[in-house]
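Figure 6 in text form: structure in, sequence out.
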């Protein structure tokens, strides 16, 4: 949980103000209320009240499924919830829910219903979206699917309010677009390694992630794609391996459009030939930043052709969820990350770097909460 003396402080709670306090006092209670009927006893509610009060952490309620979690929990002895960085606090909240529900003993998945609902709701819009890109191919198709995968990130079941923008306002919502440089990077490096995608949400976002994967495989026909998902339920709608498989199976449904069935068939064939692999490393279920991954995983990512990082959480991992000035250059904030990353993210939390002052002033003139309201977005090399 410590940071270098040369780095800014972690993003933490300020009681009574800011997005972190809003999350603790408004979002977390709503998340617990939605699943409380699946939990026995008052342990989860007691944990939540301790978080809200900022009081002592009861480490006895947490399971220790990995060595990392075992060592991490030992470090929390005598700490309060207010002592934790926001990044750690959120992770520990969800780890607590899984521990209390019995996920690590009996695989009780309290968020499975939410992810299934997200997939069902996503299909009609996806069919429409596939129609709009049906005549595209090659680089043009990849460009379109990258944008689709970006703005699908605005859907997040852990948020109380979700932005409902459409393609007509995408350009004005983009604070930074470095997609052309990233596509060039992939063209130059696709023969040297696999492309990795660190996924975020199931449902609408995962659907478009798979559309993007299909475009990558069709354009770079000798390159494989690895999709990284959570090893256990997290952040309400974060994708698990089962969600990737269920989504592809849904695409194959005879009652859906021809474009979607063909997409499903291509993805299924790619899975069968190992051109798509799904990995669920324990790292993604632990409060690690990208400069503190398991060495084997770090080496794998550093040897890749490139890493797509989806969503807020993975962006926060890249910049260690620190209070960097917004105009901090990417090479400074991510100096200790050993792989080339491309962030596709709709802004729903405070962490942000590499944005010019004039751009932030324009955004702030539109919304006071422009960094967290789920409206603005970045496609950013980090």
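Output sequence:
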């Amino acid at each position: 949980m410590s940071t270098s003396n040369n780095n800014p402080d972690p993003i933490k709670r300020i009681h009574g103000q800011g997005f972190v306090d809003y999350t603790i006092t408004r979002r977390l209670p709503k998340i617990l209320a939605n699943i409380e009927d699946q939990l026995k006893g008052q342990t989860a509610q007691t944990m939540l009240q301790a978080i809200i009060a900022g009081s002592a952490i009861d480490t006895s309620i947490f399971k220790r499924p990995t060595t990392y979690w075992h060592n991490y929990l030992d470090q929390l002895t005598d700490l309060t919830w207010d002592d934790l960085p926001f990044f750690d606090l959120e992770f520990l909240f969800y780890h607590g829910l899984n521990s209390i529900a019995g996920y690590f003993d009996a695989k009780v998945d309290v968020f499975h219903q939410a992810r299934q609902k997200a997939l069902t709701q996503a299909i009609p819009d996806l069919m429409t979206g596939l129609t709009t890109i049906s005549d595209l191919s090659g680089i043009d198709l990849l460009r379109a699917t990258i944008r689709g995968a970006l703005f699908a990130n605005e859907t997040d079941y852990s948020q109380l309010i979700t932005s409902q923008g459409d393609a007509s306002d995408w350009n004005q919502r983009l604070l930074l677009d470095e997609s052309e440089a990233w596509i060039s990077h992939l063209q130059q490096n696709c023969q040297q390694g696999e492309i990795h995608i660190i996924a975020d949400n199931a449902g609408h976002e995962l659907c478009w992630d798979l559309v993007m994967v299909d475009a990558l495989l069709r354009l770079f026909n000798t390159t494989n794609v690895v999709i990284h998902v959570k090893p256990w339920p997290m952040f309400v709608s974060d994708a698990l391996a089962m969600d990737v498989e269920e989504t592809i199976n849904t695409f194959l449904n005879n009652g859906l459009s021809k474009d979607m069935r063909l997409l499903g068939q291509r993805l299924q064939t790619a899975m069968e030939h190992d051109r798509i692999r799904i990995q669920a490393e324990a790292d993604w279920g632990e409060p690690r930043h990208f400069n503190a991954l398991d060495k084997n995983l770090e080496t794998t990512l550093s040897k890749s052709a490139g890493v797509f990082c989806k969503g807020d959480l993975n962006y926060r991992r890249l910049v260690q969820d620190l209070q960097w000035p917004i105009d901090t250059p990417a090479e400074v904030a991510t100096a200790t990350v050993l792989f080339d990353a491309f962030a596709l993210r709709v802004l729903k939390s405070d962490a942000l770097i590499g944005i010019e002052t004039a751009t932030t002033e324009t955004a702030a003139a539109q919304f006071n909460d422009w960094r967290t309201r789920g409206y603005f977005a970045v496609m950013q090399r980090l």
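Caption detail: The first helix runs from residue 18 to 35.
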